């Protein structure tokens, strides 16, 4: 049922929180359009924010496929993100102390392989044990990776970071020089505002194309993987690993697959970041990133891919949106430094009133083409109830 | 119905092949052989030289007072615990010290004493975890061979719904698995275990916490599945339930087998009465 062909039926099939989210997204979109039209939000900066949102969405996808699907507690999101960023930076940047000057596409491959190797290395000793051990090990891993990046100067440039990273499309035909070749456009949608679309805008637009491709690709893979027998085994492991074992599932292998998959997606976010920012430094491996991504996944609803997408966007909105609040002079306090507090309050409120997150997974983990044709379908009430919503 | 037929055929085949092997064993066709199994937790010896066997086609009961080591024995047999000594053979294959998923591959499936809830799943979804070796459980197949995944998934869903029908709980199929009663959950667990097509099903207290009506239904189902070819080994505290259903009955006391016999023999045996009343052996 599509929102365009049958809007009324689409609306009727939604659960209450889904309606809330649709309304909120619509309102937010209207606000953004107003901001763009009045010139309060520069188009190039807006696209940069879209890129950040996509990056957080990727990180949330990665953590969701570990924690949300399988219940693996990974506190080293920032490490895998940093590994992705440094992997591609060291391969492609002009100031790279080891390789350098390779095409970014090789950097992408190197970064993902590096992340997969590290995930396997940390998974082998911990995934056979109880969930807590991975949590502890990953907490240590994040710090170890950060300190190695900071101190191994001959390899990583240390605290100076890596400069001179090319854009993602370096070396591609047409796309490499597209931003310079596109004409500058000036628009005046409302009296008194003047919108400028020049080279920075076009290159930001290309970045958005990259991140949207990454996000869409990851989403397509994760959605298929989640609503499948594979995803069902992961869900069973999360609920009760012994049950999965008793039914003959090789749980260690599933946990490893889920962990590696998530880590690769996190590294993908890092690759995008390196080519967005064109500079990486050890501060990008700050543990606060891990914290933000956890908030995004829990807020969106653990186990739900669209929840992770939503959560990632909300986090970027809070992080960047609070900067704008300072421009309103009638707010007596400096708002920006309060945003961590704001996120904390948000989490407390959420845990109290909706512990399963805003958009928890609602569809059954059964191959879609099989179950969607079945005569009996759970109603939206059942879908809401099975997430534990009306329980307490 | 067709499916019950095919499983029956499959069982007949395995019965025939193993009949050759077990001819040396005095004509008894053993699906499970436990020999001298021992397990200690620190100073406590939970299983002490337990030796018994389960004959194909039976419903074998395993009883004993609290702390006799019944659940430990189940954990040892199904691969959840590693035994300190002794051996476990399933269908003549030594599975001692193997992982639960490997033991399951030889046709041994177990359930748990307390029903394992799967929050966030509907009943039919939880049922579908049962079938073993689904093509869709391989990540690669999801992308490289989706048609095989879809085909098996459709067959599994149909079979799950048919089994729920046979258990007379098909109206629960799309209900959240956490919202059904404890007794219904026991039925779902049994139904799900059947989807794994076990040759030997280990049931840990299937009747515990189930009301009398549902308990009769459960006994009826176990008997029906047994007639269709599944061998059962069940732990049960409800004497009435186990004596009506099981034959033979194995009595466990302080980690080792006290006796084995028909329900009648067990009920009239002095040693069994002593063990239950706490008399010293």
Short description:
The complex is a heterodimer of chains A (392) and B (281). With 392 residues, chain A is mainly α. Chain A contains 17 helices and two strands.
Write structural notes for this entry.
The complex is a heterodimer of chains A (392) and B (281). With 392 residues, chain A is an all-alpha fold. Chain A has a single domain, classed as ABC transporter involved in vitamin B12 uptake, BtuC (Orthogonal Bundle). Chain A contains 17 helices and 2 strands. A two-stranded antiparallel ribbon of chain A has the order 1-2. In chain A, strand 1 and strand 2 form a beta hairpin. In chain A, helix 3 packs across helix 14 and helix 9 packs antiparallel against helix 12. The longest helix of chain A is centred in the N-terminal third of the chain and has 28 residues. Chain A is globular and about 65 Å long. Chain B has 281 residues and is of the alpha/beta class. Chain B contains 11 helices and 10 strands. In chain B, the strands form 2 sheets. Chain B has a 6-stranded mixed β-sheet, with helices on both faces. In chain B, helix 6 packs across helix 7. Chain B starts with a helix and ends with a helix. Classes of the chains: A mainly alpha (392), B alpha/beta (281). Chains A and B meet through helix 9, helix 10, helix 11, helix 12 and helix 16 of A and helix 3, helix 5 and helix 6 of B.
Percent in strands of chain B: 15-25%
Count every helix of chain A, treating DSSP H or I runs of 4 or more residues as helices: 17
Per DSSP E runs of 2 or more residues, the count of β-strands of chain B stands at 10
Distance between the termini of chain B: 50 Å
Unreliably modeled segments of chain A:
none
Query: What is the straight-line distance between the termini of chain A?
Result: 31 Å
Strand order in space, largest sheet of chain B: 6-7-8-3-9-10
Taking pLDDT < 50 over at least 5 consecutive residues as the criterion, the unreliable ranges of chain B are: 1-24
Largest sheet of chain B: 6 strands, mixed
Beta strand % of chain A: under 5%
Based on secondary structure, the structural category of chain B is: alpha/beta
Radius of gyration of chain B equals 19 Å
- Number of domain modules of chain A: 1
Give average pLDDT of chain B, whole number: 84
Q: What structural class do the secondary elements of chain A suggest?
A: mainly alpha
Order of helices and strands of chain A: HHHHHHHHEEHHHHHHHHH
Mean pLDDT score of chain A:
86
Biggest interchain interface, per-side counts? A-B, 44 and 47 residues
Q: What fraction, in percent, of the residue positions of chain A are helical? A: 55-70%
